[in-house]
């Protein structure tokens, strides 16, 4: 590499016209930001959607036959399934939960919620409480964000399932863009919904491998059983399948936009400096060095753009996280890698035409006026 | 006698074919020694630029040979030429041609990079050269912040960075005022005399004759004997004595490009005679031992 | 202006504008689509559990004899129960969101347009939305597994798609069974010549919530907006900025290339305003060309989207198109900032420097 080290001509060329560098880098950065933001919204939504499942103590989730997901789904099992499952080997514990979507209403405000009915003291309830206590009869635990939107605190009253409930405690991390998760006592829920004798899901603690246990439960009972991992993945798959095409369209458009910008910057830059390329050739710069100048300019351009896009996305995610209007944006390493790959591709494609132009420059032209 | 730096034999360059065939350079021979300054003059379109491009390994001659320090340029493959240009040649251009995004220091340092030197060593050499040219305060300035003379000094420092055998300068003083032009001329002379480089300068600038060991006249792609040429005292054009209208005055013969110039001279000979005497073939003081004419291709 | 540069930038701006138009179109499509059921099923009123606001999102649960109660009210021509729920089906390894609708055979509540086959008669039959059938290759006579039970597909319906889910129609009894909620329903659909009066009467008599299709549709649109507007506007903003930068970059490059001429013009006495107007004119031209290209690209893209994914409706309203035109003009204005600063700050004396 000694052949191409020394004065960083590519970088100097890029930064010599600050305004143009800014416009070009910003343009590509914005295109990359779009991809990262899209991914981020997607990842954020996913995380929230699976937050209940992921934070659960259960190793296996049992549901109605053929039901493999939670949100936008319905599942019901007879309550005696709990006992049936509990008797199987490798089952440490089995607890029922009831699940449905609903709305919380208080002080003229309305928040959508997923309602979980669980047996207090058993798994299935809120992972942690930031205030108050678990629900007693007639009581409910809300996510703190939902409580905030409803202008409620511990001790306040909220309406759902056609009744009024007292807020006994607050939990956190359970509000997403669509919904929040609220917790009631199992028996309260069953009575309010008139589904006594039923459960939506049965949560199971395993003493061995969850996947194996899930298989055994399925064969023994005929219900659908999935390990927590599997269940979460299915849930993610649901969101993914719903939105994949939209994402593809937008990513494609972002790429086109990025391509246009890089074409404008690199190509224009090279054209503007064609004479200087000729000078460098005259002075003795070989094809490798010249190629390196073009590539390094491309690399710096997309590199800085990528860094800015990531920083901006992180900042955006932070800001949005603080705002009440929840747009989930989580910048995951995989999104950054994907954007980096896109950036590298952009840089490479954008460098092709300039490289060809550079190779054709005639050094003798420096003498012509 | 000092060693031969450049030896060119039978150089020819033809552009185009058939009806549009143009011979820019025809059968030129040239020898330049280390420590010599050779000035090539001639009208526009005479092939000076083409000749320089060939000497600088930027243009392949249609026929003929060029060797620099014994290395036959014409036999070298294309891939070896850049390295050769970097190490054996130094170029000085009319438009300076500095890299606008780099500082003065970096411009010279870049030339060192091309010859394989990087880092502190390259920078140190660049700084040394620039300081030697009085540019110590301008190291971090970009070309757009330098004056014409400063730019050309940077260009010459760049040309000298790799201690080349040959310096090729194309109209080095064209865009500079008289005082600066003199400075640049002196720098080129120093490069030859003190550092032993072979300096070939292509220029219209008469003042450069003061530093030249030899002055050659290129016209229509061929060297012509300087003694065959004269300068029209009225319009300053170079004319071939053989064919030019002439006028005798005060015991001296004057040559003109055309009858109108001759008439003008005849009307006020004393006025024009005073400024005559410079130009090809005219009397001019020259360091002893220098030749007047280059070799001429025998037709 | 350099032709190649102009083409590249028109392409880039076009992509941005096309994307904005497409997103807008999809959004309009969603909003229209979301009330497809209530707009077409033929009911004048929807009776739901007290506090119900949406057709989607929050399930309403009523005892099934509510239908009989409502039927008994004066001026009620028809009152039929309809049980609805989201269900996720597994179709060749993909999770497909669907909306289950169970209605009484032969009565209101089922599909309003049959493209193929017939309506449901038995409890183990189903009618599937056309987009679902097309996308997943479901044919008449095939068996469909829904929540662990098998249904024979006897019909394909048109226009029955909403909220990113295609409808699956079956009998009311079947849905009661699937949801393990026997004796319950979600809504009672009412047909009446006097919706206002009847709604009031139902409310008084039962204490339940009564909504018109329009109200229901608007509520669902609001729900949709709440969920999706945030990310949508974020992305639109980003795309807008990208488009602006492309225009700015193009014109700026052009200005820099001709900086000498601008300098000469200034040296010759051209006033600042004139030069700025020239620059602004350029950004407007690039913007206008980009918008035109964008509109054409949008037409092509939307046609492609609808052909490949018929469940995605792309609707373009004139107000939407106007809004995008205005946005492009704004893009051009903002884009002029950087190049005009370059020209404004130009020192005419620089023309003379070597």
Give an overview in words.
The complex is a heterotrimer of chains A (369), B (299) and C (354). Chain A has 369 residues and is α+β, with helices and mostly antiparallel strands. Chain A folds into two domains: 2-49 and 243-367, no CATH class; 65-222, no CATH class. In chain A, 53% of the residues lie in helices and 19% in strands. In chain A, the strands form two sheets. In chain A, strands 1, 3, 4, 5, 6, 7, 8, 9, 11 and 12 form a ten-stranded mixed sheet that branches. Chain A has a two-stranded antiparallel sheet with strand order 2-10. In chain A, a hairpin with a 2-residue loop joins β7 and β8. In chain A, α8 (228-272) packs parallel to α11 and α10 runs antiparallel to α11 (333-360). Chain B has 299 residues and is of the alpha/beta class. Chain B has eight helices and 14 strands. In chain B, α6 links the parallel β7 (166-170) and β8 (198-202). Chain B is globular and about 65 Å long. The two termini of chain B are 30 Å apart. In chain C, 52% of the residues lie in helices and 20% in strands. Chain C has eleven helices and 13 strands. In chain C, strands 1, 3, 4, 5, 6, 7, 8, 9, 10, 12 and 13 form an eleven-stranded mixed sheet that branches. A two-stranded antiparallel sheet of chain C has the order 2-11. Chain C folds into two domains: 3-33 and 228-352, no CATH class; 45-211, no CATH class. The chains are: A alpha+beta (369), B alpha/beta (299), C alpha+beta (354). Chains in contact: A-B, A-C.
């Amino acid at each position: 590499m000694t052949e191409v080290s020394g004065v960083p001509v590519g970088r100097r060329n890029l930064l010599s016209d600050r305004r143009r560098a800014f416009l070009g880098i910003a343009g590509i950065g914005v295109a990359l930001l779009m991809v990262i933001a899209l991914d981020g919204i997607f990842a954020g939504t996913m995380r929230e959607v699976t937050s209940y499942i992921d934070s659960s103590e259960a190793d296996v989730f049992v549901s109605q036959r053929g039901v493999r997901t939670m949100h936008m789904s319905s599942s019901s099992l007879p309550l005696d399934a709990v006992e049936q499952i509990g008797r199987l080997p490798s089952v440490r514990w089995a607890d029922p939960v009831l699940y449905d979507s609903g709305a919380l209403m208080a002080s003229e405000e309305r928040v959508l919620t997923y309602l979980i009915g669980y047996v207090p003291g058993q798994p299935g309830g809120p992972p942690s409480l930031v205030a108050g206590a678990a629900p007693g009869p007639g009581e409910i635990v809300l996510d703190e964000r939902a409580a905030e939107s409803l202008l409620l605190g511990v001790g306040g009253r909220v309406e759902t399932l056609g009744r009024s409930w007292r807020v006994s405690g607050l939990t956190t991390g359970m509000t997403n863009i669509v919904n929040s998760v609220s917790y009631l006592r199992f028996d309260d829920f069953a009575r309010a919904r008139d589904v006594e004798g039923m459960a939506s899901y049965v949560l199971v603690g395993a003493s061995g491998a969850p996947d194996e246990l899930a298989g055994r439960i399925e064969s023994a009972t005929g219900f659908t059983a999935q390990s927590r991992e599997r269940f979460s993945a299915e849930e993610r798959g649901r969101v993914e399948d719903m939105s994949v095409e939209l994402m593809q369209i937008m990513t494609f458009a972002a790429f086109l936009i990025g391509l246009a910008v890089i074409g404008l910057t690199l190509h224009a830059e090279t054209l503007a400096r064609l004479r200087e390329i000729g000078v460098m050739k005259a002075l003795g710069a070989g094809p490798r060095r010249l190629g390196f100048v073009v590539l390094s300019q491309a690399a710096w351009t997309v590199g800085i753009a990528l860094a800015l896009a990531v920083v901006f996305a992180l900042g955006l995610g932070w800001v949005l996280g603080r705002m009440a209007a929840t747009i989930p944006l989580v910048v995951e390493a995989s999104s950054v890698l994907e954007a980096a790959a896109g950036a590298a591709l952009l840089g490479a494609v954008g460098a092709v035409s300039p490289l060809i132009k550079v190779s054709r420059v005639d050094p003798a032209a420096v003498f012509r006026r | 006698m000092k060693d031969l730096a450049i030896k060119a034999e039978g150089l020819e360059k033809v552009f185009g074919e058939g009806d549009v065939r143009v011979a820019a350079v025809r059968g030129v021979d040239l020898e330049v020694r280390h420590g010599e300054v050779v000035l090539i003059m001639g009208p526009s379109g005479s092939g000076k630029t083409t000749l320089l491009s060939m000497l600088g390994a930027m243009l392949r001659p249609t026929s003929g040979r060029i060797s620099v320090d014994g290395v036959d340029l014409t036999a070298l493959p294309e891939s070896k030429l850049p390295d050769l240009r970097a190490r054996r040649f130094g170029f000085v251009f009319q438009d300076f041609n500095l890299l606008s995004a780099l500082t003065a220091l970096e411009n010279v340092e870049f030339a060192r990079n091309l010859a394989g030197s990087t880092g502190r060593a390259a920078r140190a050499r660049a700084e040394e050269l620039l300081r030697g040219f009085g540019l110590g305060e301008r190291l971090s300035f970009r070309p757009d912040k330098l004056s014409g003379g400063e730019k050309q000094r940077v260009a010459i420092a760049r040309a000298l960075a790799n201690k080349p055998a040959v310096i090729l300068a194309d109209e080095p003083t064209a865009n500079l005022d008289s005082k600066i032009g003199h400075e640049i001329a002196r720098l080129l002379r120093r490069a030859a005399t003190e550092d032993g480089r072979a300096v070939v300068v292509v220029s219209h600038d008469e003042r450069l004759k003061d530093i030249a060991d030899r002055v050659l006249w290129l016209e229509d792609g061929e060297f012509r004997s300087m003694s065959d040429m004269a300068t029209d005292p009225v319009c300053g054009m170079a004319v071939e004595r053989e064919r030019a209208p002439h006028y005798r005055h005060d015991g001296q013969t004057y040559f003109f490009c055309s009858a109108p110039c001759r008439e003008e001279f005849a009307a006020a000979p004393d006025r024009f005679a005073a400024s005559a005497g410079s130009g090809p073939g005219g009397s001019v003081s020259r360091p002893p031992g220098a030749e007047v004419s280059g070799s001429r291709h025998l037709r | 202006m350099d032709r190649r540069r102009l083409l590249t930038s028109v392409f880039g701006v076009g992509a941005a504008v096309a994307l904005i138009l497409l997103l807008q179109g999809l959004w309009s499509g969603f909003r229209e689509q979301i009330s497809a059921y209530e707009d077409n099923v033929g009911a004048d009123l929807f009776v739901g559990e007290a506090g119900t606001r949406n057709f989607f999102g929050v399930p309403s649960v009523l005892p099934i004899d509510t239908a009989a109660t409502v039927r008994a009210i004066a001026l009620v021509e028809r009152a039929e129960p309809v049980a609805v729920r989201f269900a996720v089906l597994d179709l060749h390894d993909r999770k497909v969101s669907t909306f289950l609708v169970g209605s009484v055979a032969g009565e209101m509540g089922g599909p309003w347009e049959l493209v193929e086959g017939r309506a449901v008669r038995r409890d183990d039959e189903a009618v599937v939305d056309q987009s679902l059938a097309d996308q997943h290759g479901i044919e008449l006579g095939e068996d469909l597994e829904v929540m662990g039970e098998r249904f024979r597909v006897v019909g394909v319906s048109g226009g029955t798609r909403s909220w990113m889910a295609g409808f699956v129609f079956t009998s009311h009894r079947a849905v009661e069974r699937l949801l393990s909620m026997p004796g319950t329903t979600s809504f009672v659909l009412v047909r009446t010549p006097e919706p206002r009066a009847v709604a009031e009467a139902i409310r008084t008599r039962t204490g339940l919530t009564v909504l018109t299709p329009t109200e229901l549709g608007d509520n669902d649109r609001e729900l949709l907006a709440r969920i999706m507007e945030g990310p949508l506007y974020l992305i639109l903003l980003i795309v807008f900025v990208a488009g602006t930068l492309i225009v700015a970059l193009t014109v700026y490059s052009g200005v820099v290339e001709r900086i000498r001429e601008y300098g000469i013009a200034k040296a010759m006495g051209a006033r600042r305003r004139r030069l700025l107007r020239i620059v602004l004119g350029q950004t407007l031209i690039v913007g206008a060309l980009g918008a035109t290209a964008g509109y054409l690209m949008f037409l092509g893209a939307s046609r492609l989207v609808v052909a490949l994914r018929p469940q995605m409706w792309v609707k373009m309203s004139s107000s939407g198109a106007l809004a995008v035109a205005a946005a492009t003009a704004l893009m051009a204005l903002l884009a002029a900032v950087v190049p005009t600063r370059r020209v404004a700050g130009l020192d005419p004396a620089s023309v003379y420097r070597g």
